[in-house]
Each structure stands twice: as C-alpha cells, then as structure tokens.
Design brief:
heterotrimer; A mainly alpha; B mainly alpha; C alpha+beta; B: mainly alpha; MetI-like fold; 10 helices; 0% strand; C: alpha+beta; Rossmann fold; OB fold (Dihydrolipoamide Acetyltransferase, E2P); six-stranded mixed beta sheet; 20 strands
C-alpha cells in the first residue's frame, strides 16, 4: 500500500469530520433514554416493535428494488448500445441524463400530477418509474464510467462471434466485467429510492420516509432512531459492498 | 408577480447561489485530491458514498443537524466550551444561514460527483510534459490545469445552483414556514384540499422554476460539449 | 546551447517488490542517438523517466556533461521529452504549445513565437500553427510534440515510444524525420522503443534490456551479428536454434563441420544460433535432410520454413527467385552458409 499522500489524508479527514459529526451526534441522541437517564437501545426497540415499521420498510424496500430493476434493464442495454455505436447523439444523452438533477423535484411532481393518466396515478407502481428518473444522473454516470473502462467493442464482438445473442452477451459477458459499476449503480439507486421523500409526499403516497416524518410529530427520539436506521444502515452496507466488490482491470497502465 | 412569491423566488435563487458558492471550491479541491491521488478502491467508495450523501435530505438530515448543531446539539456544546456560543445572536437552523449550512451537507458530495470526471480527464502526460518543459507546479496550474478545469467548474457550479434552488424536503423539515422558498410554496399549494386556482398557481410557479433551472442547464450542456473534445479518452 | 553527454550510473529503482532497474549503467555520447530496446516491463521507460526526473531513482546518479543532476527537479533539467501520445496541451494552439518551453524560460512573446515557427517549419507544420490539438492527426501531433521538445534547444532529447501509437507508414516516415532533425541539431538523444526495426534503423547504438538489466549495448550491426546473450539473439531479428554437439571446438550442422564460437562455457549439447539468411534451401531429388512446411512470399525475398528429421523447425530467408519450386512437402537439402556459428547452452 502506497504511503498516504498528506493533502489527500487531510482532505479525507476533513470530509470525514464533516460527514460523520452530524451522523454520530444523531446516533448519540437516539441512544438517549430520558426516563432512565444514561443510554440504551430503547428507541430502536420501540421502533422495531411498531407494527408499521416493518410494513413501511418492506414497502419502500420493494419499491426501491423495482426501481433498481427498471434502472438496470433500461440503462445497461441502452448504454451498451450507445457506447458501441459511437452514435453522435451520445453527448446529447449524456446531457439529458443530468436533467433530473436540475429539474426541481417539486416541479417534477407537479408535472407528473398533471400529465400522467388517471390509471397510472392510482397505482403506487408509478413511483419506481419516477424514482428511476430521479436516480438517472447517478446511475448513468456510474455505468458510463464502468463501460468506458473496458474494451467493450472487443468483448462484444468476441461474444457475438461465438454465437451469443444480445441478451446473453450482456448478461454473461458485459455485466460480470463491469461488476463494480453495476454494484455502484444498484447501491445508489436503492439508497435514493429508499430515502425519496419530496416526490412521494407530493403525490400523496406513503412510504418509509413519509412515515418517519409523520412519526416525528409524536415521538421525536423514536423518529431519530428510525432515521438513523434508514440512513446509516444502507450507507454502511453499500460502502461495505463497494469495498468488497472485486477489482477487475483488463489492462494495467504501464 | 406579487408577494410572497417574489420573495420566494428571490430567496430560492439566493440559497441556490450561496450554497453552490460555498460548496464549489471545497468540493473541487476534494475531488482533485481524491481522484488524482487516491487508490481505486477509495475512489469508488467515495463515489458511492457521495451518491448516497448527495441524496440525503429532509427529516433525517434535519435530525442529524439538530443533534449536532441544534440548541442542545453536541457540536454546539463543544463550541460553547471553547468560547463560541453560536446561539448568542439570532442564529438557528431554521434561518437562512442555518439552511445554508445544512445544504452544504448534500451540495458538497454533489460537487464531488459532478466535478470528478473533469479531474479524471486531466491526463498525467500534460503535467509531466509541462514539468519537462520547465513549468513548476504553479505554472502548470495557471497555464494548463486551471484553464482546462475552469469550464467544468462553472458547469458544476450551475448544477449545484439548480440543486440548491430546488431543494424541498430539507427546507421543509427545517423551517416552519417563516422563510419564503418557492419549492415550499408550491408544496403548500398542492397539499391537502386544494382549489383549482391553487393548483394553477402551483403549476405556474413550477413552470417558472423549470425556466430558471433551464438557465442553468443549457449553459451547462454547452460547456460540457466543448470540453468533451479533449476529455474523451 | 550545445548538447552534452548523458551518463546513468548504477541506477536502481524498485516499484513495490519489482526491481524495475538493477544497477543500470549507460553512457550516451554527445550528439549520439542511443535506443533502449526491450519487451514491456524491461525497465527502459523507467530509465528514461529517471533521466527526465519524472521518477526518482532509489540509488545511483544521472550526469549531464560533468554535472550531477540526480537531485535536480524535473522542471529544471533542461531536457526535451516526447511522450507516446496525448501530450500536447489541448487549451493551447500548436504554436503556443511549441513556444511553451520558451515561455517558461521567460523569453518574450515575439521571439518565442518566431522560434516556434522555425521549428514548425522544420517539421513541415507551419501552416497548422493556429490550430488546436484535436484538429490534428496522430502523426501531426507527434511532430508538433517533437518541435515543442526541441524549441528551447535542450541539452538532451528524450523520446518515450513516440511512434508506438501511429500507423505503420506514418511510423516509418516519422522515424526518419526524427533522425534527420537529431543529426542536424546534434542533440544527444535517448530513444525508448519495443520495436526493434525502429531502433536498428535510426540509432547509432542500441541497448537491449531485459528485466531491468542492460544485456548488450552495441551498434545495430554488432547486435545483429554478434549477440552477446541468448535473449539478445532471439529478440533482435529471427534466430534459428539448431541442436548440435561440440567436438573439438566444432559443431556438425547439416553435414558440414563449422567452427563453434563460444561466449562462455558452452560444451557438449548446445544450440547453434544461425540467422535465416545464413541457411540455404535447395530442392533435391534424393532423400534430403528436411521437408518444406511453408513458404511465405514477401516480395524480393521469401521465408521458407522446414522441418528436419529430428523435428527441429528451421527458417531460411532466400531471394524469391531461387525458391520458386519449393512446395510444401517437398524434400530439400539444407546447408549452412557461414564458416562459424554462435552457440548457446541448451
């Protein structure tokens, strides 16, 4: 392991302080037990015992999972094609992928309310598609970097000439090679969907984040505990996943 | 356009600009050190972490900051111990300044995400060639590095503006309606039992928001297209 | 500024637990063009980068003329370097790129632009002076890079595989141009490449490297005809290895007794190292000592690949005219044309 560059180390330390102080403070708060003094896991236990806790976690969970599925199914083939065809619309698509970052979610919600037909608006299934759009900037960028770093053309041609059709090529050849990018995409998309609040509440749906906000009005400490779980656990899990995902470089730089 | 909507836009634009301004340079510097000197695993981890953090908002984020910088917050206590009582004046997390500090929490990671590709595109050959031709670090940055990064920096700044401008959940969680912000106003107009005129007003405000965001996005796309010429590997 | 000599003395450099350079020594005379040739990972690029100051050696010193520059940082070393690709600054025009070295030396604008144009003229690109990098072809970019490296009249010119990323025809033209420029300016030059044809074609001397060690440094002629090691023999040009037995300082190959040139302690069973052009193939109606496997027509000459009775593959290079009737499968008689051969241990 190379020795750590001083400016890099300083940067990381400052960032770490900035990111973790609020988290740790909130965590400490959530461990407080006002009645008994001192610390305990009371709030967490309370949260888990609330029957709605699991209901909403599972609800947000499968909505997030659906979003991930949509993201992968739409983006991986499309981006593979974009990279392979060297199409001139690629910079354009690159730009479009960043639009959701910029269109106010509020306006997006308004737009969705106005334009979606009735039957779509009646089902909670409209959410994964909307979450997909919100996650697009992050997912697109992660996959883009991944696809850029492999000899895509060569791999595809090799697979195709060996007899694989498009789907098999993507599933058995390309995805394993860009595994780390895919993991990153899944991570970010899942995290985003799990925590999405604005769009959900404006479209009058109930998911985990909206439930937490509701709970906050009655039991602030309990809500903090829940928030901690919803934020920190995915954060740690995803970070761990990224660290563990295998390195795969096809060619080192000399 | 009458009050309070005029204030709403004014404040929203202001918070967009200010939060972008505060986050842009630290974010760019952090992105530089991470991308140019960090090992691959670190870069990837930070990328994912930044993605999650850039989407942190609303109630969870509000809680974290109440816990850290609220009246009873841990950090507040530590600062008081060192002699700095941040609540001595009229500060609270629900003020403009308070919002600004909290916005930083997701603006900074966003800057790292959006600006990193520009750093990656800076080829090692350029700094080596510059050194070989007699440039020290300062010369390299002034003549080559910064000119090359500048467009992307501006583009990233624009993106951060749009993000700060349109933030809803966090503002909603921290303020109690005392700060006029357009996203919150739109939310209010669409909430609960609404009348047709309220919905229409909401739509109108929404459209104006999109137009303002467009003023950020279009230059962004134009800048990126120009930089793409040399950024392609 | 006139060129100086370049000396690397006992340079060692490790990366992790890999020894990129191990007590490496090299001397390049004033105005000489020396090539470092070897496979990927042999240390040639590391050696070049140590000279440039882009890598810092673990041990040893670098001298320019009689000045020890080992601790001088890269930007003060006054050497011109051409990288493999992508080294032109994209935000500067061609002429600004070429003038950059002079700009860093605080030469005033009109003087340095004039000099830039002189050099661009030398490489034939004066007409492109106001363009940007992405508007030029690969070959043009490398010529600009060359002009840029020479604009401030460096004492030493360093070339890091400058032709590797170019098309074959462009490569041949550009290497001639590099040599031409180097000779007319008299600049001491160190040139790194993995392409032996390139190295042999334009260098005064070539150093063959393997695993961080300089195996042999000599004129192209000497390297080809008197390789000092097995590695050099195989790396430079094609070499046949024919099993033979040394008796009284001679080996018997294809029926003739030939003097064995030993370089070390070779004895008993050895490989005789013979170049394809030193082996002749003749059609024969009798039994013959080999059978033709393939014949590759390359224009003026042809490569004939044969197999002897004991299974050895032998390659011969002859004029196409004399090999017309050698079809695959036909019996032939192989003969060694030299009176002495190099031998190597098996």
């Amino acid at each position: 392991m190379r020795k750590l560059n001083p400016p890099l180390a300083i940067t990381l330390i400052v960032l770490a302080l900035f990111v973790f102080i609020p988290m740790i403070s909130a965590f400490e708060f959530s461990l407080r037990t006002p009645g008994k003094g001192g610390y305990g896991w009371d709030q967490y236990l309370w949260a888990i015992r609330e029957e709605e806790f699991f209901y909403y976690i599972i609800r947000s969970g499968w909505l997030a999972a659906l979003t991930v599925a949509i993201t992968l199914i739409v983006l991986v083939p499309t981006m593979t094609w974009l990279h392979l065809s060297k199409s001139s619309i690629r910079p354009f698509v690159d730009g479009i992928s960043l639009l959701p970052l910029v269109i106010p979610v509020v306006a997006f919600a308004v737009g969705a309310q106005i334009s979606f037909p009735e039957f779509v608006q009646d089902t909670v299934l409209e959410l994964p598609f909307l979450y997909f759009v919100l996650a697009l900037p992050y997912a697109y960028r992660t996959l883009d970097i991944g696809l850029n770093s492999i000899p895509l053309k060569t791999l595809t041609e090799a697979a195709r000439s060996a007899g694989a059709n498009w789907w098999r090529t993507i599933i058995t050849v390309i995805i394993p090679v860009i595994k780390s990018a895919v993991v990153g995409t899944v991570a970010i998309t899942f995290a985003l969907s799990l925590g999405e609040y604005t769009l959900t509440v404006l479209l009058h749906w109930d998911t985990f984040p909206t439930w937490v906000t509701f709970v906050a009005q009655e039991n602030i400490l309990g809500a903090i505990a829940i928030s901690m779980m919803s934020l920190v656990i995915p954060f740690l899990v995803l970070t761990a996943l990224t660290l563990v995902a295998p390195e795969r470089s096809t060619q080192g730089r000399k | 356009m009458q009050e309070p909507y005029r204030s709403g836009f004014f404040n929203s634009i202001k918070i967009g600009l200010y939060s972008a301004a505060i986050a842009a340079i630290p974010g760019a510097v952090a992105a530089y050190f991470i991308e140019s000197r960090g090992p691959v695993k670190l870069r990837r981890t930070i990328s994912v972490m930044s993605g999650v953090l850039a989407n942190t908002g609303g109630v969870p984020l509000a809680f974290m900051f109440y816990a850290a910088l609220g009246i009873q917050g841990q950090l507040t206590k530590v600062l008081k111990f060192f002699g700095w009582d941040i609540y001595a004046g009229r500060f609270s997390l629900g003020t403009f300044l308070g919002l600004l500090i909290v916005y930083l929490y997701f603006q900074l990671p966003l800057m790292i995400i959006v600006f990193s590709p520009a750093i990656v595109a800076l080829r090692r050959e350029w700094s080596e060639a510059a050194r070989n031709l007699g440039a020290n670090q300062l010369n390299y940055w002034i003549k080559i590095g910064i000119p090359l990064l500048f467009p992307s920096f501006i583009a990233s700044f624009l993106l951060l503006f749009a993000s700060g401008f349109s933030a809803y959940a966090t503002a909603n969680a921290l303020t109690i309606g005392d700060i006029a912000l357009t996203p919150l106003q739109i939310g209010g107009l669409l909430d609960g039992n609404v009348s047709a005129s309220q919905i229409n007003l909401g739509k109108a405000l929404g459209v104006v928001m999109i137009v303002i965001s467009a003023f950020a996005v279009i230059p962004y796309l134009a800048i990126q297209r120009r930089s793409a010429r040399w950024q392609k590997r | 500024m006139s060129s100086k000599s370049l000396i690397l003395r006992n340079i060692s450099k490790r990366f992790g637990n890999v020894n990129a350079l191990d007590n490496f020594n090299l001397e390049v005379g004033v105005g000489e063009l020396v090539a470092l040739l070897g496979p990927s990972g042999c240390g040639k690029t590391t050696a070049l980068r140590v000279v440039a100051g882009l890598e810092h050696q673990d041990a040893g010193s670098v001298l320019v003329g009689d000045r020890d520059i080992s601790q001088i940082p890269a930007h003060k070393r006054n050497m011109g370097m051409v990288f493999q690709a992508y080294s032109l600054f994209p935000n500067l025009t061609v002429e600004e790129n070429v003038a950059f070295g002079l700009q860093m030396r605080k030469v005033n604008k009109s003087v340095r632009l004039k000099k830039a144009h002189e050099l661009l003229d030398l490489v034939g690109l004066d007409s492109q002076s106001k363009r940007f990098t992405h508007q030029l072809s690969g070959g043009q970019q490398q010529r600009v890079a060359l002009a840029r490296a020479l604009a401030f009249e460096p004492e030493i010119l360093l070339l890091d595989e400058p032709l590797s990323a170019l098309d074959a025809q462009v490569r041949v033209n550009l290497r001639e141009e590099i040599r031409r420029l180097q000779l007319s300016l008299g600049t001491t030059t160190l040139f790194v490449t993995h392409d032996q044809e390139e190295a042999m074609a334009i260098s005064d001397r070539v150093g063959v490297m393997n695993n961080g060690v300089l195996e042999q440094i000599d004129t192209p002629d000497a390297l080809y005809n008197k390789p000092a090691s097995s590695f050099v023999a195989s790396f430079v040009g094609t070499m046949n290895r024919i099993p033979a037995h040394i008796t009284d300082g001679m080996v018997e190959i294809f029926g003739s007794k030939i003097v064995a040139l030993k370089r070390g302690n070779e004895s008993g069973k050895v490989h005789a190292l013979i170049r394809p052009e030193s082996i002749s193939v003749a059609a024969t109606t009798a039994q013959g000592n080999a059978k033709v496997l393939t014949r590759s027509f390359m224009g003026a000459s042809s490569n004939i690949i044969c197999q002897t009775e004991d299974g050895t593959i032998v390659q011969s290079l002859m004029t196409s005219a004399s090999t017309g009737d050698l079809l695959p499968g036909s019996s032939v008689q192989l003969r060694v044309l030299s009176s002495e051969v190099l031998v190597a241990n098996v």
